[in-house]
Amino acid sequence: MRLSWCVCTGREAARQSPAVGNLLSPAGARAAPVRGMTPRCLTYDGPVIDERDLEIIAALQEDARATYADIARRVGMSPSTVHDRVRKLEEAGVIKAYKAVVDPEAVGLFVTALVAVMPLDPKQPDDLPERVQELAEVEDCFSVAGEANCILKVRTRTTSDLEDLLRRIREKAGVQTRTTVVLSIPFEGRPISP
Fold first, then answer.
1. What domains are defined for the chain?
2. Which residues have CB under 8 Å from 191's CB, separation 6+?
3. Under 8 Å CB-to-CB from 42, ≥6 apart: which residues?
4. Does residue 32 contact residue 17 with C-beta atoms inside 8 Å?
5. In 22, 35, 84, 99, which residue has its Cα 20 to 30 A from 143's Cα atom?
């Protein structure tokens, strides 16, 4: 379900529409539907998520293999209600996927690097993501503001493999690169906490 929302203080929401005092926006602020109101705040489109949904999301981020019964005990709901809410969160695109988190070193990927990518010709099309998507070593691609157009997070077996990957990126995409090799990863892939 997608609606337009106006993020307001609790007093504004109650004054504009008393029935919405218990609703939360995805950011956790009190929210009121925009329909028929004169919004005094930022409006945006997003799924309606309440505190219980956030508790379910937190439980799934902690253990995506937990059963509905396990999550239900944790959040104080029935398993069928949890199942229904998870289904709705999936349909709304809030929950995008369930996947295994693999230790890169356990599968032989010992080198992690962040690669800043800048086009050689500023007039060339901004199609880098499509050009590097097929390279298995590219784990993430971030479009960024600043000197670089994109930052790629890459993983390879060795520094020689990293050097070869950088050559292939430069040739395939017609770009220059600036690479930072990661020495250690204190944490990554933290759960999203709205």
1. 2-91 (1.10.10.10), 104-181 (3.30.70.920)
2. 58, 61, 62
3. 6, 7
4. yes
5. 99
Report the distance separating Cα 129 and Cα 117, nearest Å. 11
Q: How far apart are CA 123 and CA 71, in angstroms?
A: 52
Residue 153 and residue 52: Cα distance in Å, rounded? Answer: 34
Bridge partner residues of 7 (DSSP): 31
Take residue 171 and report the two structure tokens written for it: 């040739």
Torsion angles phi and psi, residue 93, rounded to 5:
85, 10
- Check residue 122 and give its pLDDT: 82
Which amino acid is present at 92? A
The single residue listed with the structure tokens 């060339």 is 124
CB-side exposure of 71: number of CA atoms within 13 Å? 25
**Strand partners of residue 5:** 33, 44
Task: Please write the tens of the pLDDT for every residue from 77-126.
Answer: 999 999 999 999 999 999 999 988 899 999 999 999 999 999 998 888 88
- Name the β-bridge partners of 47: 2
What's the token pair of residue 175?
């770009």
Helices 68-75 + 51-62 axis angle, to 10: 130
Q: Give yes or no for a contact between 85 and 136, defined as CB atoms under 8 angstroms apart.
A: no
Specify whether the CB–CB gap between 68 and 86 falls below 8 A.
yes
